[in-house]
Amino acid sequence: MSFIMQTVLLALGVFACMVSGQGLDSRLEKGGARVLAMKTIGNRMAVEDKDLTVLYNFYNVGDGIATDIRVESPDTFIDWPLKNGLSTGFQIPFIQPGENVTHALIYQLGKVGKTNTLNATDFTYKNGKKLVLSKTSAPGPVKVQSNAEYERLYTLQMRPWLLYGACSALIVVLPYLGFQSSSSKAKRA
Ligand SMILES: *[C@@H]1O[C@H](CO)[C@@H](O)[C@H](O)[C@H]1NC(C)=O
Ligand SMILES: *[C@@H]1O[C@H](CO)[C@@H](O)[C@H](O)[C@H]1NC(C)=O
C-alpha cells in the first residue's frame, strides 16, 4: 500500500468516526429528560433525640424538561417519625435540563444505639408524555449516637480549625504589632 493510500484511508477513518460520533450525539439529544436522584443524609451525625435530614437531590442530566417528579413512598420508621414532610411523599412540578432540585425530609430520631437502614426509593417522572420509573441511591444504615459521643467528635474535628484560627490571627496581628511599635518609636524620635 502506498503512503498516500494509507493517509487517505486514515483520513477517511477519522472522518467516519467523527460522523458516527455526531450521530450518537444527535441520538442522545433526542433522549429528552433523564433524571438521576441521589439520596443522602444531611447531618454530620445522627444524634439521640435530634433531627435526621434526608436529602433527595434530583439532577436532570438530559436535554429535555422533566415534569411531575414524584416520590410516593419515602422511608418510614416506627420509632423515627417524620417531622417535616409527609409519608405519602412529595412532588416536584418540573426540572429544567442541567438543573438540580433538592427536597429535604426531616425525621425525629429516638434512642441511642438504634439503627435503621435507608434504602433506595422509587421515583417517577415524565419525559414528554412518557412515564419513567427509577430509583434513588441508598444511603445505608444510620446509627443513633449519644450526645456525649457527638460532643467528643465535634471537638476533635474543631481542634485543627481552632489551631488554624489562632495561627491566622497571629499572622494578621504580628505585623500590625510590629508596625505599631515601630510607629510609636518613630513618633517618639
Ligand atoms: C431497608 O431494607 C431493609 C432490608 O430489606 C429493611 O429491613 C428495612 O426496614 C428497610 N428500611 C426502610 C426504611 O424501609
Ligand atoms: C447538579 O448536581 C450535580 C451532582 O451533584 C453537579 O455535578 C452539578 O454541577 C449540579 N448542577 C448545578 C447547575 O448545580
List keywords for this structure.
single chain, 189 residues, alpha+beta, Immunoglobulin-like, 3 domains, four-stranded antiparallel sheet, 2 helices, binds 2-acetamido-2-deoxy-beta-D-glucopyranose
Question: How are the elements arranged and paired?
Answer:
Elements: H1 3-29, E1 35-41, E2 51-60, E3 66-71, E4 82-84, E5 90-95, E6 100-108, E7 115-118, E8 122-127, E9 130-135, E10 140-143, H2 147-188
Antiparallel strand pairs: 1-2, 2-6, 3-5, 3-8, 4-6, 7-10, 8-9
One 2-acetamido-2-deoxy-beta-D-glucopyranose binds at residues 59, 98-100.
Explain the overall architecture.
- This protein is an alpha+beta fold and 189 residues long.
- The chain has three domains: 1-30; 33-145, Immunoglobulin-like (Sandwich); 146-181.
- The chain contains two helices and ten strands; from the N terminus they run αββββββββββα.
- The chain has helices at 3-29, 147-188; strands spanning 35-41, 51-60, 66-71, 82-84, 90-95, 100-108, 115-118, 122-127, 130-135, 140-143.
- The strands form three sheets. Strands 1-2-6-4 form a four-stranded antiparallel sheet, with no helix packed on it.
- The chain is flat.
- The protein starts with a helix and ends with a helix.
- Mean pLDDT is 83; it is low at 13-29.
- The structure holds 2-acetamido-2-deoxy-beta-D-glucopyranose (NAG) (2 copies).
- Keywords: Membrane, Signal, Transmembrane, Transmembrane helix.
- Residues 1-21 form the signal peptide.
- This is Translocon-associated protein subunit beta.
- It holds the Pfam family TRAP_beta.
- The chain crosses the membrane at residues 161-179.
